[in-house]
């Protein structure tokens, strides 16, 4: 460009396109995916439960969907507290590679009561 004009001749630099905006309606599938997978970390925990021991944590319904099974308490001097990896608020999604996401919390509790030995839990944790 000759002459003394300092203006750009590239219209894309002078007027960049405005970003696209896609509102996400509350309760949408995309919102639940973002809540479950982008804002939460997956944690795998292995607990070793003896024949006469309790796991030492409580569960209740709650979490992002309201129907998730959430750790509501961890009791001192228990398998769970000695492990040190569980946190109140963690959402339980798998027990020994079996999905519990569609199970009622009472059914998850019954399942956990029956298992002895190694118990592998997959949890979703809210990022700090």
UniProtKB/TrEMBL annotation:
<dbReference type="Pfam" id="PF00595">
    <property type="entry name" value="PDZ"/>
</dbReference>
<dbReference type="InterPro" id="IPR051342">
    <property type="entry name" value="PDZ_scaffold"/>
</dbReference>
<feature type="domain" description="PDZ">
    <location>
        <begin position="44"/>
        <end position="127"/>
    </location>
</feature>
<dbReference type="InterPro" id="IPR036034">
    <property type="entry name" value="PDZ_sf"/>
</dbReference>
<dbReference type="InterPro" id="IPR001478">
    <property type="entry name" value="PDZ"/>
</dbReference>
<protein>
    <recommendedName>
        <fullName>PDZ domain-containing protein</fullName>
    </recommendedName>
</protein>
């Amino acid at each position: 460009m000759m002459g003394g004009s300092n203006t750009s001749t590239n219209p894309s630099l002078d007027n960049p396109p405005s970003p696209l905006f896609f509102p996400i309606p509350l309760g949408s599938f995309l919102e639940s995916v973002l809540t479950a997978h982008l804002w939460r970390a997956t944690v795998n925990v292995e607990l070793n439960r003896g024949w006469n021991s309790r796991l030492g944590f409580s569960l209740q319904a709650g979490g992002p969907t309201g129907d998730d099974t959430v750790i509501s308490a961890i009791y001192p001097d228990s398998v769970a507290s000695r492990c040190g990896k569980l946190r109140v608020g963690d959402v339980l999604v798998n027990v020994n590679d079996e999905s519990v996401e569609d199970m009622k919390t009472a059914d998850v509790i019954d399942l956990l009561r029956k298992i002895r030995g190694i118990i592998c839990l997959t949890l979703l944790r809210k990022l700090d």
